[in-house]
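hiii so um. not sure if this is the right channel but i have a protein structure encoded as tokens and i wanna go backwards to a sequence. like what aa goes where. can anyone help
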């Protein structure tokens, strides 16, 4: 049975379009197809990068035993003169470069600028990093009060250098406030 409705007419019906309009329509649809193809290829490249990117395993949970063992190792084998670079994440992110000679900081910069207050220079020395870890371990069960976090407990994770014992990577994880802090020593070089 044949419908009594008229057949729909579309602008794409090339029979009624002038020749120039037909060419423009073909050119325009070609660009659309090319754009979609490029977009799909870009999405595939990004997807392959994300899938193929190796995940960084979590550092081990920080315990008093691990911290004390690392401090003993640093005291026994750690150099008194060294250069280090630290990438800091969290509430106050930045890149710190520090030079220590005979246990004293002789140069320090944060994001390329030297802080005027010398008292801030010692913050990233290895002995002070151990102090930060000790303080955080003492306060991990009261994260809301101490760090202004939304949770009561902070999870602390640390990885220590196998040769000298300094903290290579540290993570303090607590929801909200100043609860989250991470750092990673990206360069450590003993000097004379």
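sure thing!! here u go:
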């Amino acid at each position: 049975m044949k419908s009594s409705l008229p057949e729909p007419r579309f602008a794409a019906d090339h029979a009624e379009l002038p020749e120039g309009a037909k060419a423009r329509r073909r050119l325009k649809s070609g660009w659309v197809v090319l754009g979609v193809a490029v977009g799909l290829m870009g999405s595939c490249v990004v997807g392959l990068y994300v899938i193929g990117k190796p995940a960084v395993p979590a550092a081990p949970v920080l315990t008093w035993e691990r911290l004390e063992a690392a401090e003993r190792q640093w005291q026994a084998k750690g150099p008194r003169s060294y250069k280090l670079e630290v990438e800091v994440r969290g509430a106050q992110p930045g890149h710190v470069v520090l030079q220590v000679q005979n246990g004293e900081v002789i140069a320090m910069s944060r994001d390329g600028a030297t802080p005027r207050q010398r008292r801030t220079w010692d913050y990233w020395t290895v002995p002070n990093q151990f102090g930060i870890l000790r303080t955080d371990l003492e306060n991990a069960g009261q994260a809301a009060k101490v760090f202004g976090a939304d949770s009561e407990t902070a999870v602390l994770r640390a990885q220590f250098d196998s040769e000298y014992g300094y903290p290579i990577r540290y993570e303090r994880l607590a929801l909200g406030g100043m609860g989250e802090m991470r750092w990673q020593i990206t360069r450590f070089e003993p000097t004379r």
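oh and The helical segments are 19-52, 64-77, 126-139, 143-147.
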